[in-house]
Amino acid sequence: MLTMKSKTRWIVLLLLLLLSFQARTDEGTTAGVYFERAGLKLISGVANVATGWMELPKNISLWQRRTDNEPVGVTEGVLRGFVHTASRMASGALDLATFWLPTFPTPNPPFIWEDFSRESEYYAFRTD
After folding, report:
1. Among 21, 42, 107, 110, which has the highest number of CB atoms less than 10 A from its own CB?
2. Long-range contacts of range 8-12, CB-CB < 8 Å, 24 or more positions apart?
3. How far apart are CA 88 and CA 49, in angstroms?
């Protein structure tokens, strides 16, 4: 008859064996994905800190097109532009600080110039 201590050992051994099969991956692919994501995150972090101010004119333009009232569109565009400017620059700084984590850049689109006709969104630590 097995004692509780020996049962625990067998369960731990079985779990380690099962989990070790799931941990096996192709090291070349894993390294390639890691360096690709880390590099993109580093470059986008630098770019977003440097070009985050471009969110201001982008949002003024976006909000002017959404309303017929010019002063309302400009005012809302300026307010949202300041928020998005701060968000893009802060997310760029966050991406710079955490570029070594293999996640995608925080803002979507990753660079301000990729889709100038769409309002930016920000996601923390997205993996796909």
Report:
1. 107
2. none
3. 7
